Amino acid sequence: MKNEGIEGTERFVSPERGRGLRALRHFSVGELLFSCPAYSYVLTVNERGAHCEHCFTRREDLFKCGKCKQAYYCNVECQRGDWPMHKLECMAMCAYGENWCPSETVRLVARIIMKQRVTTERTLSEKVLLLKEFESHLDKMDSEKDEIVQADIAALHHFYSKHISHRFLFFFFWAVSIFNDVLSRVVFFFLSVALMNHSCSPNVIVTYKGTAAEVRAVQEINPGEEIFNSYIDLLYPTEDRKERLLESYFFTCQCTECTTKSKDKAKMEIRKLSLPPEPEEIQSMVRYAKNIIEEFRRAKHYKNILHIFPSELLEMCELSQEKMGAIFGDTNVYMLHMMYQAMGVCLYMQDWDGAMSYGEKIVQPYSVHYPAYSLNVASMYLKLGRLYLGLERKTQGVKALKKALAIMEVAHGKEHHYVAEVKREIEEQK
């Protein structure tokens, strides 16, 4: 089978990192390196009825699948286009009715398996990396991950089929858990994107248009240079990032940012006190911060607690900030993490002034801690801009939206519909 490759890049073997992708020509900041269609994808259950299962168009006049009555489509063409993947779910949903409840991960793996069965040629999403080329790393998986995967395998057997190799399933659940990209409406699985190695100072960024991933340069890239994406949230200090990468991706990062630790001092800002805290006190507070972040994550995950106890979650955020604030400065990343959580709860409670107050504290430190053209920074400016406009602070709102737009035009490209939407919001204020 011929490896078509992606124009302007080539797959190569790096002595330090294994497989990778490097540039064959110069790429400017904001330039599109390549677009990669998803190998497989599913619409999340919460969005069913609002978006077409095939093209994800949002509209009110969608019609139901005549069999399961749970999948919705724009027209017959979209239904036919989705049928090769939907038919497995359709039969399961008809059989289980209201008891059909697999996770998005299980649904995605089922579709990948179905696609493997019906596809004999290299797909467009496998230009530089075949699905079968993924390294399993099964021997490196700890007992907790093993239990999660085993539970997903059991769910797949229960809801779909009992005639698939156990090891085959184990590998696919691992691959999906590592490489899928989750947006608010769709769960994707990309292949060519996964070939790029990680750096904590990436020179490209991945965004999405429809069911495709688009990879654009966020630094100047010269011929012969390796193309690096980021696998994780880059807000946190070096040791935290290394721990996450080793736990989830099984490697120790040796990128320039991890070697120099150039941003760690700012990210770990300590409050200026007459008597500076001892190193042991700082480490103790870091442990507390990590524990409270994990506790908060679990609280939001189990039983959708945000919808039930928002005021309790907000109090939890405020108390943790008060405790950490005895040692950490306001721009410390652990403080920022809890401020961000608190902002989210305020938005849910429609406390616009509270959300705005947190956003104002977060946005400038984010701009320092994150790399240039970070979507996390753009998202914060976008939220803040819309809050300002909603509170009739037009000048500040437009200024914040323009800062978001400057990042988005590089990350998403100037023709993306998200960019057009923000431009329209700015124009409406004139």
Automatic annotation (TrEMBL):
Key word Transit peptide present: no
Annotated SET domain residues: 7-232
GO MF annotations in UniProt: histone H3K4 trimethyltransferase activity; zinc ion binding
Boundaries of every MYND-type domain copy: 52-90
Swiss-Prot/TrEMBL keywords: Chromatin regulator, Cytoplasm, Membrane, Metal-binding, Methyltransferase, Nucleus, S-adenosyl-L-methionine, Transcription, Transcription regulation, Transferase, Transmembrane, Transmembrane helix, Zinc, Zinc-finger
Transmembrane regions listed in the UniProt entry: 168-196
Pfam family for this entry, one: zf-MYND
Any single biological process term in GO: heart contraction
Enzyme Commission number(s) of this protein: 2.1.1.354
A Gene Ontology cellular-component term: cytosol
Compartments where located: Cytoplasm, Cytosol; Nucleus
Catalysed reactions, semicolon-separated: L-lysyl(4)-[histone H3] + 3 S-adenosyl-L-methionine = N(6),N(6),N(6)-trimethyl-L-lysyl(4)-[histone H3] + 3 S-adenosyl-L-homocysteine + 3 H(+); L-lysyl-[protein] + S-adenosyl-L-methionine = N(6)-methyl-L-lysyl-[protein] + S-adenosyl-L-homocysteine + H(+)
PANTHER family for the chain: HISTONE-LYSINE N-METHYLTRANSFERASE SMYD, N-LYSINE METHYLTRANSFERASE SMYD2
Job description of the protein: Protein-lysine N-methyltransferase that methylates both histones and non-histone proteins, including p53/TP53 and RB1. Specifically trimethylates histone H3 'Lys-4' (H3K4me3) in vivo. The activity requires interaction with HSP90alpha. Shows even higher methyltransferase activity on p53/TP53. Monomethylates 'Lys-370' of p53/TP53, leading to decreased DNA-binding activity and subsequent transcriptional regulation activity of p53/TP53. Monomethylates RB1 at 'Lys-860'.
Protein name according to UniProt: [histone H3]-lysine(4) N-trimethyltransferase
